[in-house]
Amino acid sequence: MKRSSVTTLPADVLDELNRRILASSFSDYVGHSAWLQQQGYSVSKSAIHRYATEHASDLLASERIDSSLSAPEAKLRCLEVVATLGVADSSDTAIEHAESLLRWVYSHP
Fold first, then answer.
1. C or N terminus of the chain, fewer CB within 10 Å?
2. Which distant-in-sequence residues (6+ apart) come within 8 Å of 49 by Cβ?
3. Would you give the distance in Å from CA 67 to the centre of its chain?
4. DSSP, residue by residue, 56-105
5. Helices 29-38 & 45-54, crossing angle to 10 degrees?
6. Residue 32 burial by Cβ neighbours in a 10 Å radius (0-12, 13-18, 19+)
7. Are 98 and 82 in contact (CB under 8 A)?
8. Helix (H, G, I), strand (E, B), or coil: what is residue 51?
9. Considering the entire predicted model, what is its pTM?
10. Would residue 28 be called left, alpha or beta, if left means φ above 0 and alpha means ψ between -120 and 50 degrees?
């Protein structure tokens, strides 16, 4: 199996990309690709999207939850991630996935 061009990035560049993916709520892959190009790395938006999708739980787990984040704000962030990843086929399913993700995030500090 071919190794992802994202995982071959230097650690400091990958860390910044991870931060950018989280800050954009798993969106703006064109922007991430352009930023990487500016850093001297040619990585397609599709490769970044595949990486973000495959590593979503790891990325979310690495993000520290701000203690000032209210419960509704945390729920909304999880719902945004679910919507962005396109894993739900209805609003009810999206809410179920978001609640499941939120439970997971809070159980894995």
1. N
2. 29
3. 20
4. HHHHHHHSPPPTT--HHHHHHHHHHHHHHHT--SSHHHHHHHHHHHHHHH
5. 110
6. buried
7. yes
8. helix
9. 0.60
10. left
